[in-house]
Amino acid sequence: MSVRPRNDSIYPTGDEGNRLLSETSRDAVAHSLTSPPYSKAENLLPSPRQTLFLMGVHGLWSIISPAGHTVPLSRLAGRTLAVDLSGWVCQAIKAKSLAQKVQKPHLRNLFFRVSTLYRLGASLVFVIDGEATQLKWGTLDKREGRGEERRRRTGRRTILQSYVNECCNLLDSLGVPYIRSKGEAEALCSILNYTGMADGVLTNDSDSFLYGATTVYRDLHTTERSPTVECYTMKAIHEKLALNRSDLIALALLLGCDYCPQGVVGVGKETALQFLRASKSGSQSTSDVLDQFQEWRNGSITEDDIESKIQLTVFRKAMSSPNFPQKEVVREFLRPPDLPSSSSPSSLAGDDTRLRHWRQPLLHSTQVMCHHQPHGRWSTLLEDG
C-alpha cells in the first residue's frame, strides 16, 4: 500500500472531509507508522523511572504508588487526554539508546505514540509551554545546561524550543490539535482535566495533581506485546492515603519540587508523611496544612502550641529556613491558569468540542517531512513493499 500525496481536488474538506479522512487517510498513515520497525524503536525509550531528570515533587510517585494501578492501553479508547508536549520531547532526547539509532528521536517518538493512541480510539490535545515562571528558572538552567547570563537575557526555554517547534510542525501535518499555554503547560493540562474538558492528563510530572488534575496516566508503554499505562486518580489518593491537594502541595514544600528544589533540609518522605498524619489528628486537625504553615511563620502557632514530637521536629526544621513556606510556590499551584486567548487560532480554551476535533491531516506535508528525515529510515514507513 502506498499513501497518496494530498491533492485538494480529490480530498473532501470541512466536516465531511474530516469524517472521511478519519476512516481512510489517517488510518493509512497510522497503519504504516505502527508497522515494524515500530516496536523496536519504541522499546528503545527508557522507562520514565529511568530518565535522567526528575519532574515534579521529589519522591511523590513512590508515595502515591499504592493508589495507582496498571491498565491496558485500550482503556484509553474514547477518552480525551491532555499531554504536555515538552515532557515527551525530554524523555525522547534523554534516551541515549534511541539517540544512537535516529537523529531526531523526539519526532519519531511523537509519531509512533500519536499513531498508536489514535488507533486505540483516544483523542489527544497537546499543550505547549509558554513563558517559564521565574520560580523554575534554576531548574531549567540545570536541565538544559544553560548559563545564568543567557537565562537573564531570555527568560525562556531556549534549548527545547527548537525540538518543540519541530513537533508542532508534525502535529499540524497530522491534524492533531495543540494549545500554546501562556505559562506552564502542566498547569493548563491539569485545568483542562479539572474542568472536564479532558478526561485525564498523560504525563510523568507529578505536579499535575498539585495544579488540580483529577486523573493522571503515566509510564506509557506502547509495545505490541504488552501496551499498558499506569492510572492515578485524586479520589484513590484520598481514599487510600488520606491525602488531598493541599497535602500534596505541603509535600512539595517539605520535600522539594521544581520551584523549590531543596525543600526543608532534614525532612524526608517518612517524616513528611508522619507529620501530615499527626496534623490531621491533633487540635489543629480542622485547619488546612498550608494555613498551619503560614500560622507557624506569622507566630500564630508557636512551639508551645504544638502537640506531637513529629510536628515539633518539622516545625523547627522548617522555621530554620527564612523563606518557608514559600507563598509564591503555593500561589503558583493554586492560582487560576492564564488561559490562551479565545481569538488565537491555536486556542481551544472554553470549547471542549474542539479538543476532540482533529483537523484534516496534510498527508503530503507528512510524507515530505518523513522523507527528509536525515536518518533516512522514515521514508520507508509511509510505503509498504
TrEMBL record:
<keyword id="KW-0255">Endonuclease</keyword>
<dbReference type="GO" id="GO:0000400">
    <property type="term" value="F:four-way junction DNA binding"/>
</dbReference>
<dbReference type="InterPro" id="IPR006085">
    <property type="entry name" value="XPG_DNA_repair_N"/>
</dbReference>
<dbReference type="InterPro" id="IPR006086">
    <property type="entry name" value="XPG-I_dom"/>
</dbReference>
<keyword id="KW-0378">Hydrolase</keyword>
<keyword id="KW-0539">Nucleus</keyword>
<protein>
    <recommendedName>
        <fullName>Flap endonuclease GEN homolog 1</fullName>
    </recommendedName>
</protein>
<dbReference type="InterPro" id="IPR006084">
    <property type="entry name" value="XPG/Rad2"/>
</dbReference>
<dbReference type="InterPro" id="IPR029060">
    <property type="entry name" value="PIN-like_dom_sf"/>
</dbReference>
<dbReference type="GO" id="GO:0005634">
    <property type="term" value="C:nucleus"/>
</dbReference>
<comment type="subunit">
    <text>Largely monomeric, dimerizes on the Holliday junction and the first nick occurs upon dimerization at the junction.</text>
</comment>
<dbReference type="GO" id="GO:0008821">
    <property type="term" value="F:crossover junction DNA endonuclease activity"/>
</dbReference>
<keyword id="KW-0460">Magnesium</keyword>
<keyword id="KW-0479">Metal-binding</keyword>
<keyword id="KW-0227">DNA damage</keyword>
<feature type="domain" description="XPG-I">
    <location>
        <begin position="172"/>
        <end position="243"/>
    </location>
</feature>
<comment type="similarity">
    <text>Belongs to the XPG/RAD2 endonuclease family. GEN subfamily.</text>
</comment>
<dbReference type="InterPro" id="IPR008918">
    <property type="entry name" value="HhH2"/>
</dbReference>
<feature type="domain" description="XPG N-terminal">
    <location>
        <begin position="55"/>
        <end position="150"/>
    </location>
</feature>
<dbReference type="GO" id="GO:0017108">
    <property type="term" value="F:5'-flap endonuclease activity"/>
</dbReference>
<dbReference type="Pfam" id="PF00752">
    <property type="entry name" value="XPG_N"/>
</dbReference>
<dbReference type="Pfam" id="PF00867">
    <property type="entry name" value="XPG_I"/>
</dbReference>
<keyword id="KW-0597">Phosphoprotein</keyword>
<dbReference type="GO" id="GO:0046872">
    <property type="term" value="F:metal ion binding"/>
</dbReference>
<keyword id="KW-0540">Nuclease</keyword>
<keyword id="KW-0234">DNA repair</keyword>
<dbReference type="InterPro" id="IPR036279">
    <property type="entry name" value="5-3_exonuclease_C_sf"/>
</dbReference>
<dbReference type="GO" id="GO:0006281">
    <property type="term" value="P:DNA repair"/>
</dbReference>
